[in-house]
Fold this sequence. Notes:
The protein has seven helices and no strands. It is mainly α. The longest helix is centred in the middle third of the chain and has 27 residues, at 60-86.
Amino acid sequence: MDAAVIALPPFAELYRQYRTRALAIARRIVGDADEAEDVVQDVFTRLAQRPSGFDGRSSCSTWLHRVMVNSSINWLRARRRRERLQHEPESPASPEAQAVGSEMQRHFEEALDKVSEQQRQVLWLREMRGYSYPEIAAMLRIPEGTVKSALHRGRQRALAELEERGQQP
C-alpha cells in the first residue's frame, strides 16, 4: 500500500511565507549575506523544478529548515574546496611541527572514539562547526536537553581520556 503523498503549499506561497526565515538560516551558517541569498535562491529554484521529498512526517517549516541547513552546509563545503583550489599552498610546516600536529590529532581522534556516536556528533557540530543547541537538536532530531547533556558527557569523557594519556587538552 502506498503512503499518502503530502503536498507542500503552492510554490509562490511557500516562497513568500518562508523566504525570510530561510535567508536567516543560510546567513547564520554561511556567514555572508550575498552567499546566503545565493543558497536560498538555489534551494527555492530546486523546489520549483522538481519534487521536494517532503513526506509529511514533520511540519513544512521544520522540513524546510532541515533543507536549508543541509544546503548551507553543502555550500560551505563547496566554498572551501573552491578556496583551496584558488590559493597557493602555504609553506610547509617543519617536520617537527607536522609530527606534533599529527600526534595531537591522533590523540584527539582516539579520545573521540571513547564517546558514544551521539556524543561524537554533538561534539563535532558544536565545537568544530559552531552550531547552536537548537540547530544541533534540529539536525539530529533530538531534544535540545539531550544535545546539552550529550555535549557535557562527551566533553567530560574526551577530556578524561586525554588526561589518562597524559595529553594536554
